[in-house]
Automatic annotation (TrEMBL):
CDD domains, per database record: HDc (cd00077)
InterPro entries noted in UniProt: HD/PDEase_dom (IPR003607), HD_domain (IPR006674)
Domain HD: 4-158
Name of protein: HD domain-containing protein
Domain of life: Bacteria
One Pfam family per UniProt: HD
């Protein structure tokens, strides 16, 4: 059975292979130092592997079909086209906090942007938001998203 996890693990293995190949060829050409990788080969491989494992983190189940389902769900409730119409009383948005209101133009501009954003869900952008939020809030969550390893060369990788 293939799952997102097996897919990500396969991508990680391919990424590791490519990283090792790049490092091997740079070493043969004596270019590791030129690119500042002479003492960072381990961290380089780790970053590539981590990136490969995380490449699908924001994507919903069923890939692009899942994105389309999320977009349709929000459109049916937020009516983003109503956010551009006048009068404001014609706004059919079912989320009270995002409904446009007379005399609240600065907030209405924000509400319009939020509605548009929610109706244009994109998995990769969501992944970036997820990782950014987790890293920003790690101290509040008690999660240690950073780790370090001391390599034989004495370099500390974060």
């Amino acid at each position: 059975m293939r799952t997102r996890l097996t897919h990500s693990m396969e991508v990680q293995q391919v990424g590791r292979y490519i990283a090792k190949e790049i490092l091997s060829r740079l070493k043969e050409l004596k270019l590791l130092e030129t690119y500042g990788l002479d003492e960072l080969t381990g961290p380089f491989e780790s970053i590539v592997e981590m990136s490969c494992l995380m490449h699908d983190i924001g994507n919903p189940p069923f890939g692009h079909f899942g994105e389309a389902a999320i977009n349709d769900w929000f459109r049916q409730r937020l009516y983003p086209e109503d956010a551009e119409s006048q009068p404001l009383t014609d706004d059919r948005c079912s989320v009270a906090a995002l409904r446009l209101r007379d005399g609240e133009e600065p907030l209405n501009a924000l509400r319009r942007k939020i509605r548009q954003d929610l109706c244009h869900f994109e998995g990769n952008a969501q992944g970036i938001r997820l990782v950014h939020t987790l890293m920003r809030d790690e101290s509040h969550l008690g999660a240690g998203w950073r780790y370090f390893k001391i390599y034989p060369s004495g370099v500390v990788a974060w």
